[in-house]
UniProtKB/TrEMBL annotation:
<dbReference type="InterPro" id="IPR042099">
    <property type="entry name" value="ANL_N_sf"/>
</dbReference>
<keyword id="KW-0443">Lipid metabolism</keyword>
<keyword id="KW-0276">Fatty acid metabolism</keyword>
<dbReference type="GO" id="GO:0000166">
    <property type="term" value="F:nucleotide binding"/>
</dbReference>
<dbReference type="InterPro" id="IPR000873">
    <property type="entry name" value="AMP-dep_synth/lig_dom"/>
</dbReference>
<dbReference type="Pfam" id="PF13193">
    <property type="entry name" value="AMP-binding_C"/>
</dbReference>
<keyword id="KW-0812">Transmembrane</keyword>
<dbReference type="Pfam" id="PF00501">
    <property type="entry name" value="AMP-binding"/>
</dbReference>
<dbReference type="GO" id="GO:0004467">
    <property type="term" value="F:long-chain fatty acid-CoA ligase activity"/>
</dbReference>
<keyword id="KW-0813">Transport</keyword>
<keyword id="KW-1003">Cell membrane</keyword>
<feature type="transmembrane region" description="Helical">
    <location>
        <begin position="37"/>
        <end position="53"/>
    </location>
</feature>
<dbReference type="InterPro" id="IPR020845">
    <property type="entry name" value="AMP-binding_CS"/>
</dbReference>
<protein>
    <recommendedName>
        <fullName>long-chain-fatty-acid--CoA ligase</fullName>
        <ecNumber>6.2.1.3</ecNumber>
    </recommendedName>
</protein>
<dbReference type="GO" id="GO:0044539">
    <property type="term" value="P:long-chain fatty acid import into cell"/>
</dbReference>
<dbReference type="GO" id="GO:0005324">
    <property type="term" value="F:long-chain fatty acid transmembrane transporter activity"/>
</dbReference>
<dbReference type="InterPro" id="IPR045851">
    <property type="entry name" value="AMP-bd_C_sf"/>
</dbReference>
Length: 630
């Protein structure tokens, strides 16, 4: 029988065990109440740290394992796995590997490219875009992705930025009006065609078949530093003509880990409807597919009506988006198949809270993973929790790794608020401020090709102490008391429309070429139920001349891509200026385009009449009601 001593011991043990269980339960309840995202944060940060350590260790070795190396590795490991599905046709990892090898041989022996050359690529979304990109990288060339929407003057400017002397195009038609200038500048043009009507445009397709599909020497693509530029991706930035953002191997590798960090696996099928010349589709989309060893469905162009049919047909599990894309999907007619799909995650940026809620309510509880970061920036925020409306999440540990700050900003003066010592002031939790990211050895800013001045313009120095340097994102953000970060607005000379950044100074320059315009001020205005801001131009008409809507229409449709064309025009007598002699945009943005509250004459872009026509109250109401297609 039990002695009193052993019974007491047992009682003590049970009591101790109960206390431990109660303590653990209390700790769990406390954690859930006070730190609900603790474990999510810990797991996500562990992933980030592990990947970061891998990159840091690779700096110590003489060679760098690049995204292209990872692709070659995957082609050896899973040669028969579908890599790209395009217009119903499947291209395996082996297919793309061999075709890019053939192109690499053509680039070496026929185009006569050398390691270190920069080559510009002007192609639409198609598998050969990837084969050309990889083929060029295999011979050690850096590649400049050109936006297929940009026109003559901007396109010519892009070559001067990155120093490219060779251009590869999918179609010669996109060079209308500038081919002669390119040839005069000794830029050789090669087309992905079998024959060309232009005697000075060389062809590639007829030479690929005769080329070997064996690898070119791996030494050609070998990189000795993570900081070596591998791509140039053009961004409108905040001022002037497109700028060539330098993309190093370091940035490419970080971007390729995006899907993985959000929980992507080799079994995922990724839907990429965004243009490959942008970093989202190329670095995150294609790079992320390669990193996982997954499959992607590549679309030539986004189609709202085909989106869900494609997702069902190909068992898509992850899709890439911009906010506007999700809005288009929500505007499609409802069907009983809306929730019949295998999509579990969306990765992208610019998704408004109202569209976010509508999207999930209609299409199911798809985890929307917002990624915040500019092409050239040194900061990336990721909403790993799926919190509605947030672009990222911060906490004590995250801030140890990524040094960023929100500082007070004066919208009317269009500049940061400084204290008596000339330093910036941090905003309080919950307040809106300008997002700045510290430039350091761990978060370098590589800037733009061809101009130290442009690179320096994006930096702010002596921000909090003498000698410090911060990357100016140009974005106004706020951080709530839980550490969630929200995008509020853009400052300066850029607004976003149709998923593209519009540089107001570039549009201003082009509008300034119209003979009846004396002065013009371009800005973005909000339209209900639309992402971003639509272009509007306030202008002064030259003395003795009159506004000509048809002439302006012809000019903007010829020289500006669709997303950059001002939708509205406001005729003014006097152009307001700031105290620093900059054009005043704040009041213009605030007053919008309402004809009943604005005394100045207003016009709206009308594609049917091929003119800018008077903006009546009737047209204004139809725009607000979403009846007009913009």
């Amino acid at each position: 029988s039990d002695t009193p001593s052993s019974a007491a011991d047992m009682t003590l043990s049970v009591g101790w065990l109960s206390a431990v269980v109660a303590g653990l339960f209390s700790a769990r309840v406390l954690q859930k109440l006070c730190f609900p995202y603790f474990w999510t944060d810990v797991l996500f940060l562990l992933n980030v740290i592990v990947y970061g350590v891998k990159l840091e260790l690779s700096k110590l070795t003489s060679s760098v394992f690049t995204v292209l190396d990872r692709f070659v590795q995957q082609a050896e490991r899973i040669p028969d796995k579908p890599f790209v599905i395009y217009e119903g046709r499947t291209h395996t990892y082996r297919d793309v590997e061999r075709r890019s090898n053939r192109l690499a041989h053509v680039f070496l022996h026929r185009v006569r490219l050398k390691k270190g050359d920069c080559v510009a690529v002007l192609m639409s979304n198609e598998p050969d875009f990837l084969c050309v990109w990889f083929g060029l990288a295999k011979v050690g060339c850096s590649v400049a992705f050109l936006n297929t929407n940009i026109k003559s003057k901007s396109l010519l400017h892009c070559f001067n930025c990155c120093g490219a002397k060779t251009l590869i195009v999918g179609s010669v038609d996109c060079l209308d009006g500038i081919l002669t200038t390119l040839l005069e500048d000794n830029i050789q043009v090669w087309a992905m065609k079998s024959h060309s009507e232009h005697t000075q445009v060389h062809t590639l397709l007829d030479k690929i078949d005769a080329a070997s599909d064996q690898p070119v020497p791996a030494a050609l693509r070998a990189a000795t530093s993570l900081k070596t530029p591998t791509l140039y991706i053009f961004t409108s930035g905040t001022t002037g003509l497109p700028k060539a953002a330098v993309i190093t191997h370091l940035q490419s590798l970080k971007a390729s880990a995006g899907f993985w960090a959000f929980g992507g696996t080799k079994d995922d099928v990724v839907y990429i409807p965004l243009p490959l010349y942008h970093s989202a589709a190329s670095l995150i989309g294609i790079g992320g597919t390669i990193e996982l060893g997954a499959t992607c469905v590549l679309k030539k162009k986004f189609s709202a009506s085909m989106f869900w049919a494609d997702c069902r047909k190909h068992d898509v599990t992850i899709f890439q988006y911009i906010g506007e894309l999700c809005r288009y999907l929500c505007n499609q007619p409802k069907t009983e198949l809306d929730k019949v799909h295998k999509v579990r995650m969306g990765v992208g940026n610019g998704l408004r809270q109202d569209v976010w809620r509508d999207f999930q309510s209609r299409f199911g509880n798809i985890k929307m993973c917002e990624v915040y970061g500019s092409t050239e920036g040194n900061l990336c925020l990721m909403n790993h929790t799926g919190k509605t409306g947030s672009v990222g999440r911060s906490n004590y540990f995250y801030k140890l790794l990524f040094k960023y700050d929100l500082v007070k900003y004066d919208m009317e003066k269009d500049e940061p608020v400084k204290d008596q010592h000339g330093f910036c002031q941090r905003v309080k939790r919950g307040e809106t401020g300008l997002l700045l990211s510290k430039v350091s050895a761990t978060t370098p800013f590589f800037g733009y090709a061809g101009s130290k001045q442009l690179t320096e313009k994006k930096l702010m120095r002596n921000v909090f102490v003498k000698g410090d340097a911060y990357f100016n994102t140009g974005d106004l953000m706020s951080e709530d008391h839980e550490g969630f970060i929200y995008f509020k607005d853009r400052v300066g000379d850029t607004f976003r429309w149709k998923g593209e950044n519009v540089a107001t100074t570039e549009v201003t320059e082009i509008l300034g070429l119209v003979d009846f315009i004396q002065e013009v001020n371009v800005y973005g205005v909000e339209i209900p139920r639309h992402e971003g801001r639509a272009g509007m131009a306030a202008m002064i008409i030259r003395a003795g001349l009159t506004f000509d809507g048809k002439k302006l229409f012809e000019h903007v449709t010829r020289d500006l891509p669709a997303y950059a064309r001002p939708l509205f025009v406001r005729i003014q007598e006097v152009m307001e200026m700031t105290s620093t002699f900059k054009q005043q945009k704040f009041q213009l943005v605030q007053s919008g385009f309402n004809p009943s509250t604005i005394c100045d004459p207003l016009y709206v872009l009308d594609y049917q009449q091929k003119s800018y026509i008077p903006l009546t109250d009737c047209i204004y109401q139809s725009i607000l009601a979403g009846e007009c297609k913009l």
